[in-house]
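note to self: dont lose this again. the chain is below, predicted strucutre after it. 336 aa total, dont forget to put it in the shared folder this time
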Amino acid sequence: MRAVVYTETGPSSVLQPVERDLPEPGPGEVRVRVVRSGVNPTDHKFRAGAMRGHDEVSPGMDGSGVVDAVGADIEHLAVGDRVWVYLAQHGTAYGTATEHTVQPADRVVHLPAQTSYDLGAALGVPAITAHRALTSGEVNRLAPGTLDDHVVLVAGGAGAVGNAAIQLARWAGATVITTVSGEEKAVLARAAGAHHVVDYVHGDAQAEILDLAPDGVDLVVEVAPAPNQALDLAVTRVHGTIAVYANNGGEQLTLPLRETFSRNLRYQFIILYTLDPALLSLAVTDVSAAVLDGALRVGEEAGLPLHHYALAEVGAAQDAVEAGLVGKALLDVAEG
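---
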């Protein structure tokens, strides 16, 4: 099978196409013929500095494809099933930048017949992260109506996680406000379904958000906690939640304690690799329901432009993501 691997950390030039033997699934595992592989910031960050004890690594946390072999003790998946996979390269050497990937069955999820492989490969890290952020406040599940009467602020609504957060929050009934850095990204945030879009570069974000939500927002999905710290404190209501999933714009977050205490705020920090398996399972269940409802979409019309690369171009795809690509990078590994 074809794969792209690296045997040392460094720039994207360490990625090399290779041929490898077809892997066989063991008990509790399935093998997936990968059709699309999703590219996330994690991929270039790991490649730049982490081998995690492996002699070679094939990147790719997310993907979609077809089950083509099943190990022992598997009842809910069968050969021929269309699926999406998540955290595929977590704890193992081979992710989805390869023609076949062997995965624990609990990381392999049915993909409805009407759902594209493009969407399947774009779920994973972005959608599960968005779900955890949205359920770190007063609700622990997402479904239509669970966020009724809630106001959610999504920082950076044109990013992949921001896009998923907008779509999931709106599906669950929230009023969604998002911040963006210009009109191009504002168009994408509106396409994703945001009710209100605030340009924090060219306007007074605090005044605009409080005009829309005078009592403050219930929950903030935060991508840049350090530069947005003062804004988040100003616009989050008493007993609100600030859910932090990235450190864009600064490595240190300093909080004024008295002001934070006085608002009884909850901060929830999020990374999927150490997340309780039960929370991962809840997220997968809810994300799957949103997919079935048609609430999660990809493409320009959904606010998440798709950028397709060949498998051998994984280095170029990672470089584009690292440089701030707007939209979602996908590797076309095989025909659907």
